[in-house]
Amino acid sequence: EALLDLAMKMPKAELHLHIEGTFEPEQMFAIAQRNQVALKYNSVEELKEAYQFENLQDFLDLYYQGMSVLLKEQDFYDLTMAYLKRVHEDNVVHVEIFFDPQGHLSRGISFETQIKGIYGALKDAERDLGITFKLIMSFLRHLDEASAFETLELAKPYLEWIDGVGLDSSEVGHPPVKFENVFRECKALGLPVTAHAGEEGPPEYVWQALDVIGVDRIDHGNRALEDEDLIATIKHKGLTLTVCPLSNLKLCVVDTLEDHPIRTMLRYGLNATVNSDDPAYFGGYMNDNFAALVKDTGISKDELYALACNAFEGSWLDSKSKQQHL
Ligand code: ADE
Ligand code: ZN
């Protein structure tokens, strides 16, 4: 089909991707073995069978277990390089990826080990595959603000490698306002900021992301559509929404892809983009997400173009680099 072919071949930017969520079971077992650590599952098949989630927390429980086999700089390098090689096949030419330093610090893995591995792979893939990148440090919102502040201190020697700050993990019960002070300091340091908001949490959390944190974009944003004033405000500010169709399906944010709000977002004039979130867990990388939209929604060629352009426009590339993609 021509539409599918177009979607696959378009140059794309991915703005919402957790590098720990690209950990494929095969690679997880291989790294567990070389690090001599045990996994709770006996085989790749057994692990894959556990990938059935009723909500975000079900997934997060597995996600934190999975990342616990990452111990060495080489592990972080290999994880990141595998993702970059994979999305190169999907014609992804720019990535802005999250990592969760607290998910590793809590296990005794230094900030330096993490970031050197991830950044090393990003630099090598930029040279060898031509993929440009931004690296976003994300705070875990189920932890307290003091922990986020400690993480920010550890990040300070590496700010040259860090292009922005995010907020992720369990949303409900952990509103953006909990992190008001630490994001104020991040912004004072000149870092762009984004936050997961309105994935499971109510429109009020999206309002807080805007008004309390002052986000430069919104990750997910699905539930913003429940509030007309919020829609108008997001549109007026020109904020980008990093939407994740297959993630929303797997985490039961939507019942079916036909019900997915991404086309409604475009119709409202919102800058929606397509992203894979945690592709190893949610059944697909960038092109799988586009293919699913082509197959299950009535998406048009113009909408596909709009989604792809929105990603370059909403990226944190400088305006000259953006123009080269548009
Ligand atoms: N961490 C990794 N993926 C996430 C998601 N979709 N929502 C919140 N936190 C996450
Ligand atoms: Zn996410």
Automatic annotation (TrEMBL):
Record: residues binding Zn(2+): 16, 18, 196, 277
A molecular function (GO) term: hydrolase activity
Superkingdom of origin: Bacteria
Protein name: Adenine deaminase
Keyword Ribosomal protein included in the entry's annotation: no
Membership in a protein family: Belongs to the metallo-dependent hydrolases superfamily. Adenosine and AMP deaminases family. Adenine deaminase type 2 subfamily.
Active site per the UniProt annotation: 199
Organism from which the protein derives: Marinomonas ostreistagni
Site positions for Important for catalytic activity: 220
Occurrences of domain Adenosine deaminase (ranges): 11-324
Free-text cofactor note: Binds 1 zinc ion per subunit.
Record-linked PANTHER family: ADENINE DEAMINASE
SUPFAM superfamilies noted in UniProt: Metallo-dependent hydrolases
Enzyme Commission designation: 3.5.4.2
Keyword list, A-Z: Hydrolase, Metal-binding, Nucleotide metabolism, Zinc
Role summary: Catalyzes the hydrolytic deamination of adenine to hypoxanthine. Plays an important role in the purine salvage pathway and in nitrogen catabolism.
Residues annotated to bind substrate: 278
Catalysed transformations (reactions): adenine + H2O + H(+) = hypoxanthine + NH4(+)
Co-factor requirement: Zn(2+)
Pfam families: A_deaminase (PF00962)
